[in-house]
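Quick illustration for those who missed Monday's session on complexes.
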Amino acid sequence: MNTQPKIALVTGATRGIGFETVRQLAQAGVHVLLAGRDRGKAVQAAQQLQGEGLQVEAIALDVTDAASIADAAQAVAQTHGKLDILVNNAGIMIDDPAKKPSEQSLDAWRTTFDTNVFGVVAVTQAFLPLLHKSDAGRIVNVSSILGSNTLHRDPSSFIYDFKVPAYNVSKSAVNAWTVQLAHELKDSAVKVNTIHPGYVRTDMNKAGDQQNGELEVPEGARTSVKLALVGNDGPNGGYFYLDQELPW
Ligand code: NAP
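Prediction with NAP bound:
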């Protein structure tokens, strides 16, 4: 029996859902690398969780910076020699809600895609060789229900009027990428799934001083953690919120 702890890496983990995902994975006995684009913030966040007695290590990783991704992958290879779980959690929403879909700036589209889509692809490319060294590699792409084209076209859906196009389309692209990668991985020990965390009270949903949302952060991390720890009989290439399969 393999008694070594699983090694996980969570991107964008300095706050919000990512930070809580690190905490819950570490509480489940996983050794977690808490990745942040700002090394100081990552160290501070990791120290907070170490103070709770958890096995958490800080690592610098900006998902839009090729050198930073390469350095992080090399550091994990040297220190751990493998990766069991990759949670692509880092994300931004920068559409101007006062503008119509056709009016969002191209700069907003490009910046959003750099983080939410190309960041996910680049980090996955860098860490996939290490995930293949695990006997049960897992990739969780933190998407959103706002990536569902089926629901965006349904006037009875609660997201029907929520058109922040650069963000929404970036998450649809993450979903589509998950399907492509799942096909590549179908005969391997690595599984990839895309998830919606729920509508969670984090800085992403801040209006003034208020964090809007239906869920507190601990609930918001549950779907990421569930898919990160899924067994060998679990899904590959699915789109989930908790136990629910979402329409693409
Ligand atoms: P958040 O509180 O705004 O946190 C975002 C995290 O991403 C921060 O740690 C931030 O780091 C990091 N980040 C941003 N750009 C990065 C980059 N280039 N490289 C590395 N890290 C970067 O957001 P959240 O609500 O926890 O969101 C987490 C994920 O859940 C996102 O992918 C989001 O789209 C998704 N999601 C959230 C909700 C919700 O209701 N909150 C709903 C659906 C999906 P800094 O601290 O350095 O800025």
